[in-house]
Amino acid sequence: MTAKQTVTDVLIVGAGPTGLLLAGDLAAAGIGVTVLEKRGTESNLTRAFAVHARSLELLDARGLADDLIATGRPLTTLKIFDKFRVDLGELPSRFPFVLITPQYRTEQLLHDRAVEAGATVLRGAEVVGLRQDAEGVTVEAVQNGAVTTHRARYAVGADGVHSAVRDLLGIPFPGESVVNSVLLADVRLEREPDEAVTVGANEHGFAFLVPFGDGWYRIIAWDRTEERPDDTPPSLDRIAAVALGALGEDYGLHDARWSSTFHSDERQVPNYRSGRVFLAGDAAHCHSPAGGQGMNTGLQDAANLSWKLVAALRGQATDALLDTYQTERHPVGKAVLRSSGALIRLALAQSAATRALRGALASLADHLDVVAERGARTVSGIGIAYPAPKDSHPLVGKRVPDLRLTGLEPPREGGPAAPERLYEALRAGRFVLVGNDEQAAAAPWADRLTTAAPADPHGKLRDTVLLIRPDGHAAWAAVDPGAGELRAALTDWLGQPA
Length: 498
Prior knowledge:
By secondary structure, the chain is an alpha+beta fold. It is 31% helix and 28% strand. It has helices at 17-28, 53-60, 65-69, 103-117, 164-169, 236-247, 294-313, 319-347, 352-367, 369-380, 422-425, 439-442, 483-494; strands at 6-13, 33-37, 50-51, 73-75, 77-81, 84-87, 98-100, 120-123, 125-132, 137-143, 146-157, 175-188, 198-201, 205-211, 217-223, 254-268, 273-274, 277-279, 285-286, 405-406, 431-434, 449-454, 464-468, 474-479. Strands 1, 2, 8, 9, 10, 11, 17 and 18 form an eight-stranded mixed β-sheet that branches. A six-stranded antiparallel β-sheet has the order 13-14-15-12-16-19, with helices on both faces. The longest helix has 29 residues, at 319-347. The two termini are 46 Å apart.
């Protein structure tokens, strides 16, 4: 039995955080989007728990950050191992911390936003076939025992490490396992640890204990002396024994609501795009949990890709814009593999010499401000910058902080208040042009552009005109540009005016 074919603009496979953020962006822009999810029901037992500053900024640009923060626990210091800590309290961000909250809470907010905006989420739909042509992509899925067919102009595989989309495309996923038999569980404790994040690594193994803020704790542990298959859930006694060996205390852990054994891989596809199909999140890259960067990198993939798909589908950009998803995000994924891999290898160091090196590096980071700041910017994601054309303004490609703004259009009677900062202005999903007197030149693009002035006309941007992409990165900037130069930049980035 074959069900009726569905037709939409974009088909997303995977209803995790990456796929749901992407779906919400597309639907909010009026793009038809369907999400296929293999899981029949939403799960509240998920691996990720850390939401970093850059991801919170992107959620802020979607009106979700404050709601998510209310569900978790902000930590200004992230302890990686022993004395190695990353101080996030001085980050130049509205969110100078890492938020500890279960992944399912992030998923729920993103799911509700996507559905309210008009996205369709089909659960229990397992993708079994994919083919593409010059006009679009056709995906076959099994749902309720029937084969359903879905047609779209573009498709995105956001379906995790074991991506069916990636496999059906025949895209290799080269890499290696970093560590096997990692134990994972959500537990309750009889004795609360002294520190918010408890980490220990020694000759016995490694353990990491972090609170969700609701009485539950996530423990990640590794026993150097014993390996077991991934399909062997660990007993509570075994988890407690590993914690005792690595931390010197098991804190009376009990009542595990979920536990599993997994292996941590470092892998990345060579290309994030194959014709009309894109890969994002864990389908494109996976790495060790050190630093908690996995889900965050996927969210940032989605934020980078969504506005480019919108522009392409509206005919406001050429296919070359879609290619920049690869050139911008693949190096980021590679850098995350490199940094998280270095952290996990140091944490799991077996030799006394390597453990001594680990201590030396921790001491160095504590005493050199530039090292500490670079570590915080790397882990948090706010240090990410994209390639910029030669001789362009120094701001181009960089993430733009939450500028205070003025001069935005006054709100309509009974409508919401005018945004007073950049990430509020970005909630419209459009480019933002910041300058002191550019409204007239930008008027032809008013349907896809918000104009504003810096709240401090005498500040650092007093003579600079800055065009900011919907993902919060600077697209173009110039000091005191002429009207012709500005119009050329707007045409390059936003297409011909309506």
